Amino acid sequence: MGFTNFARKVRDTSLPYGHRVVSLRSCVQLYRPLGFEATVSYLVHRAGPFREDGNALLRALGVLEASRAAWQAELRVYAAERVEAKRRGSRTPGARARNPNQPEYWYGARRGAALHAVAHWRVRLRDTGLHDELGRTVDRCAADCLEAGGMQGEPERARLDACDEELRRRMEPPAYQDDSGAYFRHRDLRRVVALMRTAGTDG
């Protein structure tokens, strides 16, 4: 079932309330630019406790739909740009070319949502344990990012770049086969690094 059908169920007051909440979570499964749990947390932050409050549930759906609609509008622009690029002979996008097919930030509240997600992920990572100096460095960067409201200077961006490069290196094959737990920790840390970069942008 697609996003639109799940959204219809969220609005259907003839359904048991628990089913409507589950339908919203299904919408989030299909559009979760901050990761599933961080997206749910951000919806609660923006809309209120939707698990118990019907008005908050509808507000949360509206917030999610607005972001998704803005993302889909960018997808349409990107598709048109790719058609034109192919017409000019550029069949494959460059490695650094933007590609919005997987949403990487919250459309409509890029910086604010990223800051919320950094805080959410930081708690999660601290709960699971910061296993080495690299993890602790990312945690310190996250603390600095939150304290500064996302603003990052060149030294901070360079530190994030160094962390990201080391995390990328640690995830190269056969990292998953050797230690899947470490692989997923490094993946989550890279997600936090990406969110911090987003939090350092305008929007």
Write structural notes for this entry.
This protein is an all-alpha fold. The chain has 9 helices and no strands. The model has no long low-confidence stretch (mean pLDDT 92). Helix content is 71%, strand content 0%. It has helices spanning 3-11, 17-30, 36-47, 54-87, 110-128, 133-147, 154-170, 175-178, 180-199. The two termini are 32 Å apart. It is globular, with a radius of gyration of 19 Å.
* Main sheet record: none
In total, how many beta strands? 0
Number of helices: 9
Helix/strand order, N-terminal first = HHHHHHHHH
Q: Estimate the helix proportion, in percent.
A: over 70%
Per DSSP, what share of the residues sits in E-state strands of 2 or more residues?
under 5%
Cα-atom radius of gyration: 19 Å
Average pLDDT figure: 92
**Uncertain parts:** none
Classification by helices and strands: mainly alpha
What distance lies between the first and last C-alpha atoms, to the nearest angstrom?
32 Å
In short:
This protein has 203 residues and is mostly helical. It is 71% helix and 0% strand. It has helices at 3-11, 17-30, 36-47, 54-87, 110-128, 133-147, 154-170, 175-178, 180-199.
Characteristics of this structure?
mainly alpha
Describe the protein's topology.
Blueprint: H1 3-11, H2 17-30, H3 36-47, H4 54-87, H5 110-128, H6 133-147, H7 154-170, H8 175-178, H9 180-199
Helix pairs in contact: 1-2, 2-4, 3-4, 3-5, 5-6, 5-9, 6-7, 6-9, 7-9
